[in-house]
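#structure-requests
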Amino acid sequence: MLTSVAVPAAPAPAPAPAGAVPHVDAAPQTLADLLMPYAPYLFDLAVLSGRNLAEVTYASRRYDPVTRDFVATGVAIHRDAFSATIARIRIGGGVQRLEGVAVDTRALPLDPAVRQTLQKLGRETVTGDVTLSSAGGNAAAADYRLDLGLQLDGIADLAVSLDVAGFHILMPLHEADPAGGASDEPVVAGRLQTGRIAYDDKGLLPAVFEVYGAQQGLSGAQFAGMASMLATAGIAGAFGDAAGKVSPALQARAQGWASTLQTFIAHPSHLEVTLAPPEPVELSWLQGEPDVEAAIAALNPQVGLEAAPSVPLVAADSFPAAASGSEAVAAARQLIEGVGVPQDVARGLELALPEAANGDNAALRLVSDALSRQPALAVADGAGQRSYVTLLLAHADGVALPEDLLSSLRASIGGEAAAAAEDEALDAWMKTDAGQAHRRQEAEALAARNWSRIGKLAFGYYEGDAVPRNLTRAYGWSLIAAAGGDAAATALRDDLNQAASDGRIDLPVTRARVIANGLWALILKQDAAVAPAPADAGHAEPQAPTPAAPAQ
């Protein structure tokens, strides 16, 4: 029976009862989450300041606690010839939307051809929506999925999507290169993974052809034909005239692009350009102006008149009840992500958990994703301990988890069950190659009486991002390292003691002391060949263990 530290009589926050639903989103997770509730007041300040420059009014503004967005309605901006209204502004951490935008161009100093085009379209007041989404990215890794949508009523729609990993803009550092060899231009770093530009014509191009054709004494159809020839000649000039510089295969692809563009100009509707690199492309390499053929081979552009194939749609009840292996993982992914089928995270988790328990890394990540989306599922139907084991293994494998998810789940299942789950996860992990290597590191640190490394092992058990988290062992190993004089481990020991006393964690201290006493006895029984530790032994290189010490 594991023994937990008793909570003192003084008022203190107690661990959540077993079976309680973990709440990992109660506290702000980002700076935007923290500031967004105050956005209405910041908006008032901006409007007040802006009224020195223009007439600005609005109907309402509020903070939406469900979507965590700032919402303003009926916004109107007027200044001299400029007049614009926005029916609704919605700004959040991942999506920014301007709905019902209307800009009156009649009093604006536009180019005559642009004005004639808008008049021909009957759209001198331009209306539409603008959406910018960065949802689905990973800010910590500088990974961004950007989607821009521009819908102009009766004119055109434009959609741009970019999936970029590790995106940075590096400014020049002249002082770092006294010889002056550093570039004066910023360097764009990152890896382009996919890209898409889609254009839907709603009458814009025919109107443009008519207006500009009239200036040349041509009909709209005649001007379109001329534009088609010029576009084809431009593509041919870029690739066809480079015989000997680009391959015949690339010239053939260019001819296909020219043919597609001709068809689009003759009958404007949908045009789409996609970038599907076989491997992520370094943006800095593209900025360096690589060979044309090499760049096209790397980006793998496709030009078409049809929308890119959408995900296959399947019936919600088509997933087999007894799926296993890769079939179960694929079905779980679809259900958890809600792609091609209405999202059902609970069903996806049910399919992924058995595969995760068998050590499937993809399933481990899916379980983490599922519980990140719906933390309450972690303790549904008594699955809390099993979910906790799976998440411990996933986190040790490098899977990013929502902040506080492990702590909340641990509190929900109780200290003893959590300790048992932590031991189960550690036992499973110790059978892997990484676990065997970790066992050897522990034995070497103990044999060398390297208190710094022993303290590092204690922190490793506490952090749980390289070895499955195990608070019992974190406390036990911190007792050993602190006893040997490691200051960092002493602080960890005292922090765990205080957290247990305050009721912030349910820590089986008796079990931890059993582990510590066993390790301490092992150290004291070291072979006489192992010399007593010198004063700075905490920083000594590890020596071979004699004999090998098993992980406790």
